Amino acid sequence: MRPRLFGSLIGASIAAFSLAPQTVGASMLENQLISAAETGDPDKVKALLKEGASIEARDASGATALLAATHENRVDAARALIEAGADVNAKDKIQDSPYLYAGARGHLDILKLTLANGADLKSTNRYGGTALIPAAERGHVETVKTLIEAGIDVDHVNRLGWTALLEAIILGSGGEKHIEIVRLLIKAGADVNLADGEGVSPLTHARQRGYGKIERLLADAGAR
User: Which residue windows are coiled coil (predicted)?
Assistant: First the structure.
């Protein structure tokens, strides 16, 4: 029995060894794919995909190659990955996806690519917010306009109890970009009386911060 057992162990070891180069090779390809996406090399991305690199491979943070490209706003690499079928809604460990990150950071070209290729407008980030909410907060006017035109819910409430309108006021600067975002949200039908979790209205927040132009926009839209 012992010789048989020894032989079985040897056979298993040889089989495992024979598989190891393939596993390592695949990992190397996928690491190279993520690196090529991050540095913005679409030709390398395409070549690695042809060699068999998994398009949905993830790094230690859970980011796919497409999310890595989105982090650095590498439009051509992102386009190559999306055209090859990359999932624009694939989330990393902190619940960012290419679509959500592009929206939050104002990476407009990549955002438009994700919207044209299956972006889930209802998907939410780790704060329970849609892409529109951080875009409004950070003053990304064209991003807000693009998301509104795509049909996103302008009155979605995140876990903080805030809508895009509230975040534009509470976390915005009160400057021209945030004034324009408030105007866009009102035009899109945002509820100007939808208060935060403590019952404080957008108008009250604007008034408390001395944002006169925003206050007038809200009042003209029926805010109380």
Answer: none
